[in-house]
Specification:
Isomerase; Xyl_isomerase-like_TIM-brl; alpha/beta; Xyl_isomerase-like_sf; about 40% helix; globular; isomerase activity
Amino acid sequence: MKLCFNQATTLENSNLATDLALCEKHGYDYIEIRTMDKLPEYLETNSLDDLADFFQSNHIKPLAFNALVFFNNRDEKGYSAIIAEFKDMLEKAKVLGVQYIVAVPLVTEEKFLKEDIKKSSVDVLTELSDLAAPYGIKIAVEFVGHPQCTVNTFGQAYEIVEAVNRDNVGLVFDCFHFHAMGSKLEDLQKADGKKIFILHVDDTEDFPIGFLTDDDRVWPGQGAIDLDALLSTLKEIGYDGAASVELFRPEYYQLEAEETIRTAKETTVNVVSKHYAFQEA
């Protein structure tokens, strides 16, 4: 297995150039680039070619753009904006060699029937699949374990991906999101590991289902999630992608970026290496 860094982990105490330098120093294999803030910030003073040159001359590589946000159940204006944003992401991803674009479902207080959520999600993902195919880039759908997310359990997300039935459309499996809305382990046990493109490793304080928020995340192995059960199941069903550490802990944003990146690696490797062998950088 290879190790990836998700930029949410240093959201408030670093930037893309710093994250890249420190992740290279500490032996990460991949990075998930935040496209809503960290990439635009970088491009204010650097070019896309500068970033491509960095990846060409260093070990670390770009795993994913994170993220195309709220892709389903949009009005006509919102839908058009999503398609335009995705096309732009594809062009940038091609230059950098990005493998995946993470797609996040709509989070809203408006209530949609599950059948309408599924139909919209399948329709949009099918179109995105067609757009991404010539680029060789895959779409990783990330269900969000929050009551107001339209796709908030693994079972619901997996059903949508199965209905799309495209090789370039799969899932992000985030341990926090799986735990936060009580996704079922038996649903994961029945899944095809090849449909899971990215693993987000994280942990959380022990709040009830439906009350957890991203701020509750803690270092892997220091919370309430049964990571051993999840990781052993992922191994059994054939998941063999990267492990990407993703935290949003306010206290961790008060640390020096290097301490955050170093501790994130140590805690993630300690948990994941019980089930997977990491490849040396």
